[in-house]
């Protein structure tokens, strides 16, 4: 989706695809991985409205009620017997083969729809489901108002009473989706304007819904690069685009890979007698701050000649190719040696970062104009301050994050998965959740803090993530910086001191009062000593 911006004037149109066009990998609507799904199948199952062929019936309601609502939504935007409805059916018949190919796991769930005699049933499903989703997200005008201002964002009157449940089923579920090109074709048939993209109208509503849930700001976002013709593949893909962290919070390749043997040597003999330990010591003194030189020089092993030394603690994802060296007139080509990288460990708990690293937690605000962050994933570390937007936690939060992680399993970048792993280990105990709430970075509506801990623990079960890869784990550099803070003895002392004496206002004022009392007593003793000394006979 390079260059595609979700604004009123920056949406890109997708060309109508023929029936013989095969969908790309990004357009495929797959079911969640079986092991990931088995942790809690209810997080991938619609409760009110089944959309698509994977879930023909929602377990929470009768089989007829959702279909009646879908048909009512289709009749509202496309009147039965109208020429517009017949044209829409013809357009969907052209997209039938491509739409079926978007559901590769259909044979395991509802193979009946793959049969040729059920062709009309599949088209009817696309019509009803697509119109229902569009009616929920876009307030279409009646036929007499079509010449007016056009559609607007916001949930329509069809599903107002069940808005929260419908939002969960239509936006947040991986397996409950309609292909984007079907929604776009239906949108064009409803409004009768091929130049007006569905991305313009749907993005406004999705942005508003995510802002109300404190997940993203209300500002327009530029969609990440993709091969899907500058449009999302599904509504969940659009939600994922708004969750992407901003560029300033993503992994920056600031690591420094230095090759001791790559320095130009005018005299090979002189280069052979150069001490590798002296070269390593010079590199460390050049790149490290003074307070870390002694510790790093003692913990870093001595590099042999020709060995690559990684100075920055961020794990590099590229390697330096060692240039050829000349020896006695013959050119010796050295192979490309992968540079070592620091292995990432577990995140510490929030209380441990404050206790051992003297780290402060500060909330970033999400706002339309002057907000400090655009997404709840905009986590950054500035000095000893960990900046985090507030995460709103309720029963739908686990469903949304779980489905976004399932969507990311077929992506190169996995920021939502990295964020969930980070939060699940940061909030390891109830005291950590309490600390995060006091800092304003977590706001939950569950029964107690223990339920939040259990929710985060279950959230990352059966989740696979390469934490050492900066492409998959955008928070990798922050772990290295926080680890350095926790290994500092001075930060250990300050963190313990602040936890004991300054963890709240009462302790702080009590500590200040004790210090002042001690100073007054010390001054009294000194004055008494001086007075006694002056009274002694000379």
The number of helical segments is 21
Measured by DSSP, the beta-strand proportion falls in 5-15%
Topology, number of strands: 11
What is the radius of gyration? 30 Å
Q: Biggest sheet, open or closed, and with what strands and sense?
A: 3 strands, mixed
What would the principal axes of the Cα set say about the shape? elongated
- Give the strand line-up of the largest sheet: 7-9-8
Total domain modules: 3
Overall average residue pLDDT: 72
Helix content: 40-55%
Q: Which spans of ≥5 residues are poorly predicted at pLDDT below 50?
A: 1-20, 143-149, 153-161, 224-229, 251-333
Report how far apart the termini are.
93 Å
Q: What structural class results from the helix and strand content?
A: mainly alpha
Oligomer: single chain
Transmembrane segments: 508-532
Biased composition (Polar residues): 1-15
Region (Disordered): 1-22, 294-344
Keywords: Membrane, Transmembrane, Transmembrane helix
